[in-house]
Amino acid sequence: MKLGSFIGIVTLKVLMTRQTCTYNEIDGISFLSALLGDSINQKRHDYMYWEFNEGKGPVQLIRKGDWKLLRFVLNNKIELYHMYSDVSECVEVSDNHPEKCQELLNLMNNARTGHPQFPLTKRNPYKKKK
């Protein structure tokens, strides 16, 4: 797992070493420019991927531009929202945009780096280990 998988690690490295990171070691982008108020020169990701395992999880999410796709792993249900016109995520539009769903699912499938500590299975974080 590359270090950039953890939010903020690139920015911390830049702040601590005053050196930029190579993509061989880290797959993230420093947000130091944004912290310093320089949003014009702030590099941006093409998309953002994240997942969580709490509540209705495991759930995978991807955001690209105005679109946000959720995949509920246990039943493979997907939901698509157009964030510009529906910031509250009230109108699920996957049936109307199958091509956008497929594009985002393809990105999602390639974005995840598997790790034994973070499986996409239902877990109970409160269950005591034996």
From TrEMBL:
Name this polypeptide is given: Uncharacterized protein
Species annotation: Carboxylicivirga mesophila
Domain of life per record: Bacteria
